[in-house]
Amino acid sequence: PSTCPHCQKADAFFQSLQASRPWLDVHRYEINQDRQALEYFRQQLTLLKSDDYSVPSILFCGARWVGFDTSETTGRVLTKSLDFCHKQI
Asked: Taking the model in full, what pTM does it have?
């Protein structure tokens, strides 16, 4: 498992969020332990014209969110954004 404390918080948040949003398909990549995951992340960053490898990185709807604080702060904004994106699709 990831040693990044913010990544652990984000993971717990998304586990909880998936329970209430069955349409949400979360893929987790531990780039510090999996070379293929790191290469995939590099490819995604290239598509977004970025070279910032900060984690946690949350990629959805052609956008990237970096960092995670709490479910009440970052989680609330992410939930609204994910719901909006889902409705647009």
From this structure: 0.88
